[in-house]
Input
Amino acid sequence: MHELAHVWDDASGYRLSSYLLSATGGEWDEQCGSYVPGPRAALGPTTRLGRTDPFEDFAESFAAVLSRTPYLEGKHGDIEQTRRLTMMKLFRLEPSSRSIDNREDPVER
Output
């Protein structure tokens, strides 16, 4: 599921991970490789891997919401509300939706 999230994010032009970054108030400095998860998300990224960059944060959040407890067992992680709600919003997109290709906010219709 984690790798599927990367494929989906790539296909969207990284708008999905960017949307999560914006929803959590995070900051990503691509040149320095510096990732600050964001103040609007109380617990921070779902797992240690999710703290690496916004792409891993998106993939870990996606996998955690889709599989719930089994994915997080042994990872000492938990999905906080901002990430969970953002993922649930993204899951409601229809596969044929033009919003991912044509809008900055992939959830707004």
